[in-house]
Predict the structure.
Amino acid sequence: MKYSLHPKLVVSLLAITLFILILRLYLALELWSEGNSSGLESYPFMVIFPSTLILALALMSKAKTKEGLLMRLGCMIQLLLIISIPPLSLHLLLGFPVVFLVVELFKTKVPTNISASIEKALIK
């Protein structure tokens, strides 16, 4: 059996990504008008690249396991945080293995009735 994220969840994540992308561009242009071009110079690597990765993760085909799909969702959320919180982006990027650890702990240590209801809400 193959699993996929609920379409509403994917659309919501992509809408949030688009909103953050536009907000960060606006803030970079504001700084540029004040004479500080660092936000605009780092925009492609700090915003466009992670946004492209989120889009690629959202458009991937169905996953073979629920665990793989949860890791994909965790990566998308982590990338959203990296885009949203520029001062902590390096720390968040270095914390990517924590996403996989959290998914492993969720699958192995959380009681089945709790994890099943969460999976039912996120996975189709």
